[in-house]
Amino acid sequence: MKESRDQNTAKLSPSPTPKNRTGVSLRPMLTFAGRNAKEILRDPLNLAFGLGFPLVLILLFSAIQANVPVSLFEISRLTPGITVFGLAFMTLFSATLIAKDRGTSLLIRLYTTPLTPGEFILGYTLPLLPIAVAQATICYVAALLLGMKPTVHIFLALVFVIPIAWLFISMGLLFGSILNDKQVGGICGALLTNLTAWLSGAWFDLELVGGAFRTVAYTLPFVHAVELERCMLAGDPASAIPHLLWVLGYVIVVTVAAVLLFLRQMRRQ
Domain total for the chain? Predict the structure, then answer.
């Protein structure tokens, strides 16, 4: 009996291989990423909502702008904000994906593979990046149809969607590593999207509120993500650099935290 239990423990324990090698094991990681992409596509309703809801907001605010002209709702200013707000849904997608895997025996079996915690995080992140870029592309295409001037700066704005999307995906992996799939719905689906909406200045000017509210907003990454997109769309990369540094700083901190929490889960299980 003791020998049998030892064998089962050995099967469920993480392989020592990841600790002894460096670099990224590309093929297993891409295989894992492909599996995660299939899982995301198996839920087309949530995927369609995540892709379509920002489009609805752009149409709604554009209709308001057409009837009651407000500078805040001008299409060239509104679109970057709505684009960043839409990326908040990537947090929900990634958190739900990893939380569901934690709730099954799948991850326990995967822990015995040579994948490192960093490669697990990459495997969850990479399938969501094309979805995030597709969502941003839909927003900018809609803005062009609504009268935004076509410029090469739109492509720059789309490129810089990637670090912003990475930030939101990493936050989802962080929450998904400590919460179950029901809890992430409330934290990432309701709380985080509202925080992104109100603390990013996506569709209102934070200067109008000022005070502690503005201070807190500029301490968090959401407003910097919106300003980064606005600067790139306006063709002003110099002004975008401080906001990019804020976003990248949060990306590094949140990604490292997600990897460490994932490693902790591996050791516990």
Answer: 1
